[in-house]
Every structure is written in C-alpha cells, then in structure tokens.
Amino acid sequence: MFKQPLTDLLLSIDPVIGAISAGNGVLLKPLELAPASSSLLAKLLEQYLDPCAVRVVAGAVTETTLLLEQKECFKNTKGSTLAWFGSSRIGRIIMTAAAKHLTPVSLELGGKSPVVIDSDTNLKEKKYSPPFPSALQRIISGKWACNNGQACISPDYILTNKEYAPKVIDALKQELEAF
C-alpha cells in the first residue's frame, strides 16, 4: 500500500528510534514506491547516526530478495527481531525467510478498520466544550482529510443496523458535500 511520503518517513523512523534506544542495530529497507523519501531517509540517517548502528538499503524486489538471502540479516542472538510493515503477501515471504533462521518476526500487515455506528448515535451533534467535531466529521476526516485514507487506521467501512443505514448514508452525503 502506498502512503504519502511524509507518512512513510514517520512509519520508517519510529521503529528505528525504539530499536536503537534499546541498544539494537537496525537494517532499514524503506518503501521503494517513494524513492525521494527513501533517499532522504538514507541521507539523513547516514549523516546523523552511526553507520554501525543503522544501515539503510534502498531498492525494490531484487534488493529485498538479496537481503533475505543474507544469513547475517537473521543472526538469532538475544533480541534479534525482524519487523515488517506492509502487505500480507510480502509479509508471508518475510516470515518464511526468517523462519529458516528461527528469527522472531513482528508483522504489521495493515488491515481493515471498521467504524461502528449504533442507532442511538447523534450523527451531527458536536459534543463537549469546546465542541469537538461530530461523529460524521471525525469519520470523514479520518478517511479523506489526512493521507487520503492511506493510513492503516483509516476507516474502511461502517457497520450499523439495517434500519439506521439510510439515515447514516444521507447524513454522510450531506456532511461530505459540506466538507
């Protein structure tokens, strides 16, 4: 899944911070679909961090395949873990390569994020002081305002009861037009 370049930078750097804070080395392979972001990330990490602690490998399928063939990537010393953020299909490939070396893997494979709207929900009411956006405004901004829905926590579908669904759809249409 392609996310906006800034999101890719943030999603890449967050686990790096945790890993080096815990005293681990990092081999980072950023998303190939955003080469400018990957290049910037590599440049900044090489400039400001010890290359013995953090390495960045740019590239696509060929480079990833070569990385997965390197036994050194899977040294199973205490604390060795492989983290993967991406699709289920590639996650399976990563998991299979790690299993050959008994290396633990942490996979974040995205997913689907439902929104549950109960029939007693006031769809347009702004609550609290100062008034926060209504339920519909929060759903809409979560889906379309930030990253155009390309975040792993972006709402993907709405669950509601059959009788309430037409009201939800009409209210969403009105709110989207206003948005």
UniProtKB/TrEMBL annotation:
Belongs to the aldehyde dehydrogenase family. PANTHER family: ALDEHYDE DEHYDROGENASE (PTHR43570), ALDEHYDE DEHYDROGENASE DOMAIN-CONTAINING PROTEIN (PTHR43570:SF33). It comes from the Eukaryota. Keywords: Oxidoreductase. It comes from Brassica oleracea (Wild cabbage). PROSITE patterns: ALDEHYDE_DEHYDR_GLU. GO terms for molecular function: aldehyde dehydrogenase (NAD+) activity. Residues 10-178 form the Aldehyde dehydrogenase domain. This is Aldehyde dehydrogenase domain-containing protein.
